[in-house]
Amino acid sequence: MDWFFKSKSELPAVTHLQQKRTQQIDSLKTYNHNVAEIKRDEEYRVSFTVSGHTVALNISLPPKFPEDKPIVKVSPPLRHPWVSKHMLVIGCRSLNNFVVNSVLGRVIRDIVTEFEKSPPVVFAESTNQPPSHMPALPYPQGMPAFPQSMPPPYGQPSTVAGNVGMYPMPGHTMPPVNGSSMYPTTSNTQGNDVLGAHNFQVQTEFPELQNKSIDELKILMEDEEKLLNMVLYSEQMERLKDERNKLNESCEELSKTNMSYKPELESRKEKLKEAYNKMLEARNSFDMKCLHQQSINEQLSPESILYNLKVSVADADTESEELAESYLDNKIETDEFLKSFMDSRIKVHLRKVKEDKLHQMLTERGGVSF
Questions:
Q1: CB of 215 closer than 8 Å to CB of 164
Q2: CA gap 353, 346 in Å, rounded
């Protein structure tokens, strides 16, 4: 059991990446509520409620996290612009741009905030289908009839030939459109239309389809050229073309106006360059003068003057001593010695007085320069 009594110094050191990983996990618990640990240091879950549904974000941390970005998966299945068909969060910018210095707790908080601002459409967990209150897509033309084991819509038999009308998906109800039902209110069983000749609501963009029979619509669907011409020359398409032309014209006028400003812009650029160069010259001159002023201030400061006085006193004293030694060695005459020695001693005493006076003034003023 020696391993049980190992000291902390013998344990492996925590790496910088492990420290960052721990900090990121702590931030997840700081910025979010209902954080559950599924697998320590690897998988966590954040639960929240949106529009009466409980949504969970499953966060998987890769081995090199936070150098590699985390993987966030949503449950139960839902539809949202940020979520892929595999229920992975792919639309969050902070998650896509995740780096080592990002904060995981804030990233997950951004996702929760987005879901709260734009609630997703949550599917039923058992069937992964949209809930019953959502409009279901109709059967397209040409689809086979319902199987016999499934009840046909609205009590109509599914084995009758010509059943080519538009029916709702099994188990769902089509919502009303423009205040009225999309399903037929009257039926016509004359001619070749046995069950499918119903009058449906037609979009106002194509009013010419309002009075066409099922056979005529079938022929039109098989003629791609006619369908294409109908769309290209529709009133809505003409409006789009007019708007596009107006936008092109406005863009051309704007580009011409911008190009007319080019000479003035170039001229002002040159003036700005000249002014900038003058500013640099003035700045350099100012810096040089500041340095010169600083050196002068240092030379003429009271402390520098006091130091120079002390040096000059010592020099004058040395000069007078040298004169005395020269006289004792009979190198100079008596008259010359007296004159030179007196001048030297006067100079020493004057400088000494100035030094003492300046030292006294600095002491009284606390060494403040003046």
A1: no
A2: 11
Which parts of 61-181 are beta strand (E)? 71-75, 78-79, 121-122
Strand partners, 88: 73
What mean pLDDT is reported for the chain?
Answer: 77
- So what's the pLDDT on residue 238? 86
- Could you give the CA distance from residue 143 to residue 165 in angstroms, rounded to a whole number? 10
Q: In angstroms, rounded to a whole number, what is the distance separating the alpha carbons of residues 302 and 362?
A: 8
Q: What is the pLDDT of residue 205?
A: 63
Please report where in the chains the tokens 């559950």 appear, as a residue: 36
For residue 33, give the 3-state DSSP assignment: coil
- Strand segments, DSSP code E, in the chain are 35-39, 43-50, 53-60, 71-75, 78-79, 121-122
pLDDT above 70 for 62: yes
Q: In whole angstroms, give the CA distance from residue 104 to residue 60.
A: 12
Query: What is the C-alpha to C-alpha distance for residues 137 and 232, in angstroms, rounded to an integer?
Result: 26
Least confident span in 9-23, 80-94, 275-289, 352-366 = 9-23
Q: Residue 122: phi, psi to the nearest 5? A: -90, 130
Helix, coil or strand: residue 90: coil
Considering only CA atoms, which of 112, 74, 119, 78 is closest in space to residue 94?
112
Side chain identity, residue 119: P
The residue-averaged pLDDT of 282-311 equals: 88
**Per-residue confidence (pLDDT) for residue 123, from 0 to 100:** 83
Confidence of residue 208 (pLDDT cuts 50, 70, 90): confident
